[in-house]
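To the wet lab folks,

You asked to see what we're planning to order before we commit. Fair enough. Below is the target structure as tokens, and below that is the sequence we designed to fit it. If anything looks off to you, flag it before the synthesis order goes out.
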């Protein structure tokens, strides 16, 4: 797909909208980390429908790119993307948190097709990604490893140990994507300031780009450019809005929508109830 083609960008934007619709419907059925799931929808649409080499018919295909959702609590957006990509039926999304469901409260590789790593303990995803990227390189593979992190979890020191290791080993097959929505259970800069965030990544030997995480053309062009420099891991700091697309979930860390809220959110997304 050429990023110059407006219809291709419009298709990805529509897929991101559909991911948000699924997140809202999940949030109407069970407790859901809505805000962070909605902020990552554009990034996930670009990854799963443009960038990642995956095979829904063979989720464990050796030649696949690996994706790790380090901010594992925002799994509703990930499972929506996986279902839409064909890893399992979209109807199963309605079983979120139900007994024996393949849709859990955090990303779970054991039960959900297409999930490579179980996550939810914040600060661990990047370390796993570093090990995965090293293993791929040692095996002579060309698989790429993408890790999506929440900005709040960057307050965990283990991330910076992983960042230092990735820079030291020159892991050009590793891409970190920070969903920089600037809010956790409060504003990130009030709880534990992260800025200058891009400079921190660069200091550990990463090649860094800051982007608008809701501008689909920019997202696609940036993902198409990795690795940004030979011999360096790539970091994308994606400026996003928590709850993007659904104003009533702005800054909400966790929600459960009632019927009226669900209808209002779906209407805002241009979706019939």
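Sequence we intend to order:
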């Amino acid at each position: 797909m050429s990023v110059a083609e407006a219809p291709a960008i419009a298709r990805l934007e529509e897929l991101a909208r559909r991911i948000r619709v699924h997140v809202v419907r999940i949030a109407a059925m069970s407790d859901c980390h809505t805000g962070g799931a909605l902020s990552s929808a554009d990034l996930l649409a670009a990854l799963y429908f443009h960038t990642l080499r995956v095979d829904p018919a063979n989720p464990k295909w050796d030649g696949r790119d690996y994706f790790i959702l380090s901010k594992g609590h925002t799994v509703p957006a990930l499972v929506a993307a996986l279902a839409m990509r064909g890893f399992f039926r979209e109807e199963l999304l309605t079983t979120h948190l139900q007994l024996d469901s393949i849709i859990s409260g955090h990303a779970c590789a054991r039960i959900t097709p297409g999930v490579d790593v179980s996550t939810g303990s914040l600060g661990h995803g990047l370390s796993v990604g570093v090990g995965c990227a090293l293993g791929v390189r040692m095996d002579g593979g060309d698989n790429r490893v993408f890790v999506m992190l929440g900005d709040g979890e960057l307050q965990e020191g283990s991330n910076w140990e992983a960042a230092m290791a990735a820079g030291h080993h020159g892991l050009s097959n590793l891409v970190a994507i920070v969903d920089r929505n600037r809010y956790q259970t409060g504003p990130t800069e009030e709880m534990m300031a992260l800025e200058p965030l891009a400079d921190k990544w660069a200091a550990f030997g990463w090649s860094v780009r800051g982007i608008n995480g809701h501008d689909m053309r920019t997202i696609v062009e940036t993902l198409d450019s990795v690795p940004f420099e030979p011999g360096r891991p790539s970091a994308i700091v994606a400026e996003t809005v928590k709850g993007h697309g659904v104003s009533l979930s702005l800054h909400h860390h966790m929600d459960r929508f009632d019927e009226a809220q669900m209808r209002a959110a779906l209407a805002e997304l241009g979706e019939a109830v």
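Structural context that might help your review: Residues 106 and 249 are 19 Å apart (CA to CA). The chain has one domain: 6-268.

Thanks,
Computational group
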